[in-house]
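[recover] target loaded
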């Protein structure tokens, strides 16, 4: 990442690396001859530089969400943990009346009936069509044709055929779900605001937490490498990035972490994780990559008296201060460019 070079060099100094104020050199290659040679040297390399971080993570099914009751009554049926529920299927039952999974992004928040208008109407109608209840074109208007399709749907579910849909009758999810854990038992009373169960998606996913300072590493759609318990490495794609609050624990203060969910979409990754249910893994994030660039150890950088940075190029019994432009800092090295800096050159290093 192209962070301020000064900040990174000074940070290196705080870690025990000397920062020397070198002669300015007039900003030209060649600079001034040094009065004495440095105690050590390092070679200028041409390489691919990657800004990476590794984090412990958990292989599972991604973010857990909670299904909260809306209908008052007694829970009479609940699914088993691990059960997969698809569109149109019963998630649980209240007073032996089904609460059904439908797909969508807008939660059910009001009664839908003839005359209702809005995106939630379109969402309902699209689900009805997907389930085979047709006779209308999905749009934002709840018409008589919509009501007739709803009555057919209600009849098949064993519900009273009202032609209206109350908000607690359906749970809107992004797709097929997997029941993670039960928050209640059959016979428990339920109602508005009471947790019934938690669920995830059905696809395998890896969840990691990063310090907030490392948020730059987690970009939606970015690619990562996941190391499995058997040492196999597979590729994953970041599907979710969110800030989460952490509670105080022992000597640690409350704070904020970055939760990152990584999807394992390609066939090789899915095959590799098939034998695991829940398992600890490692995720390697790459924030930036610079290919075929010249690099030196960060501690080889010198702060020039006139501003900017340089390196001390050693040639035989003499050395010269050469101004450089810095780029990516990673893996203890820094990308540099400047007249007179070439691959294989030796640059001065602190003792």
């Amino acid at each position: 990442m192209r962070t301020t070079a000064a900040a990174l060099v000074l940070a290196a100094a705080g870690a025990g690396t000397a920062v020397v104020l070198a002669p300015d050199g007039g900003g030209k290659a060649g600079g001034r001859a040094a009065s004495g040679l440095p105690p050590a040297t390092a070679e200028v390399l041409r390489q691919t530089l990657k800004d990476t971080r590794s984090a412990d993570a958990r292989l599972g099914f991604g973010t857990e969400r909670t299904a909260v009751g809306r209908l008052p009554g007694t829970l009479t049926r609940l699914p088993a943990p691990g059960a997969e529920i698809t569109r149109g299927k019963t998630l649980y039952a209240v007073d032996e009346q089904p609460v059904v999974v439908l797909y969508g992004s807008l939660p059910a928040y009001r009664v839908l009936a003839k005359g209702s208008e809005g995106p939630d109407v379109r969402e309902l109608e699209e689900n009805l069509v997907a389930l085979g209840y047709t006779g209308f074109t999905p749009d934002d208007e709840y018409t008589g044709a919509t009501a007739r399709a709803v009555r057919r749907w209600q009849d098949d579910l064993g519900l009273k055929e009202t032609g209206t849909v109350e908000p607690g009758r359906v749970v809107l999810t992004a797709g097929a779900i997997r029941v993670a854990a039960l928050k209640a038992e059959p016979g428990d009373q339920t109602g508005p605001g009471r947790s019934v169960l938690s669920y995830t998606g059905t696809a395998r996913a890896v969840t990691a937490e990063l310090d907030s300072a490392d948020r730059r590493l987690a970009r939606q759609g970015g690619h990562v490498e996941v190391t499995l318990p058997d040492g196999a490495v597979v590729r994953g794609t970041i599907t979710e990035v969110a800030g989460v609050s952490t509670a105080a624990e022992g000597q640690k203060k409350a704070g904020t972490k970055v939760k990152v969910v990584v999807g394992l979409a390609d066939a090789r990754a899915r095959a590799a994780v098939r034998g695991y249910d829940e398992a600890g893994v490692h995720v390697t994030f790459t924030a930036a990559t610079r290919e075929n660039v010249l690099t030196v150890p960060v501690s080889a950088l010198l702060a020039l008296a006139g501003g900017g940075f340089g390196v001390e190029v050693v040639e035989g019994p003499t050395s010269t201060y050469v101004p450089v432009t810095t780029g990516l800092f990673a893996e203890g090295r820094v990308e540099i460019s400047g007249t007179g800096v070439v691959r294989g050159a030796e640059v001065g290093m602190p003792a």
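[recover] notes: The two ends are 27 Å apart (CA to CA).
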